[in-house]
């Protein structure tokens, strides 16, 4: 059964379980204290928000997302599916992002994509479903699973902040690649999403800056 990180209490219980599973995490938790749960809007809006912000500065992403939200009331998959591409372009969306959002909207409309199913699938299967969509890379898929769906085992192996935190926290000689991050996290299943919260908190402490979208 998939754990969902739906509350701070659930996250804290998961972190305590992780520390019991892997005692190497105890000193990490001592440094960070309990991480705060981070959640973003679920459903199509949450995924669209992440897509809109890909490869942009925080300020630019926020400005474009604000315009997109303001242009559609309600903001949902049907509205994006029906919207003209030139209208979306005038809001600041690139052609590639328009293609991505419209494809997701069509998949939802045809019931070929279901976010409730994704939330309860094995994390690796859910990751594969999302990355099969055009314009959805591994980082976007993992951030969506973790922050929008609260998937307790989502593991952002390609996130540079998590990689750097794992390197420092586990005393590795070099920063692990996304491929190397998978076996490193194997022992944290089915709580890899909680582990990611802990490592992001550790990155914030050691680097004095945030490591992921809030």
TrEMBL record:
Boundaries of each HhH-GPD domain copy? Answer: 52-203
Provide the catalytic activity annotation: Hydrolysis of alkylated DNA, releasing 3-methyladenine, 3-methylguanine, 7-methylguanine and 7-methyladenine
CDD domains xref list: ENDO3c
Alphabetically list the UniProt keywords: DNA damage, DNA repair
- This entry's Enzyme Commission designation comes to 3.2.2.21
A Pfam family that this protein carries is HhH-GPD
PANTHER family per record: DNA-3-METHYLADENINE GLYCOSYLASE, DNA-3-METHYLADENINE GLYCOSYLASE 2
Identification of the protein by name: DNA-3-methyladenine glycosylase II
**From which source organism is this entry?**
Bradyrhizobium aeschynomenes
């Amino acid at each position: 059964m998939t754990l969902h990180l739906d509350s701070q209490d659930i996250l804290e219980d998961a972190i305590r379980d992780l520390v019991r599973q892997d005692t190497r995490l105890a000193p990490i938790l001592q440094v960070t204290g309990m991480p705060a749960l981070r959640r973003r809007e679920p459903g199509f809006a949450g995924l669209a928000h992440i897509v809109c912000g890909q490869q942009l500065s925080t300020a630019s992403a926020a400005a474009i997302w604000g315009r997109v939200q303001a242009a559609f009331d309600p903001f949902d998959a049907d509205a994006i599916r029906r919207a003209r591409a030139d209208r979306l372009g005038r809001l600041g969306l690139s052609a590639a992002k328009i293609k991505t959002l419209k494809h997701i909207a069509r998949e939802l409309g045809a019931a070929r994509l279901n976010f409730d199913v994704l939330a309860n699938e094995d994390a690796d299967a859910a990751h594969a479903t999302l990355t099969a969509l055009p314009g959805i890379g591994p980082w976007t898929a993992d951030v969506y699973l973790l922050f929008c769906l609260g998937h307790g085992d989502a593991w952002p192996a390609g996130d540079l902040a998590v990689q750097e935190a794992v390197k420092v926290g586990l005393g590795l000689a070099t920063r692990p690649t996304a491929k190397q991050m998978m076996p490193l996290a194997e022992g944290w299943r089915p709580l890899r999403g909680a582990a990611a919260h802990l490592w992001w908190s550790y990155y914030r402490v050691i680097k004095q800056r945030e490591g992921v979208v809030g």
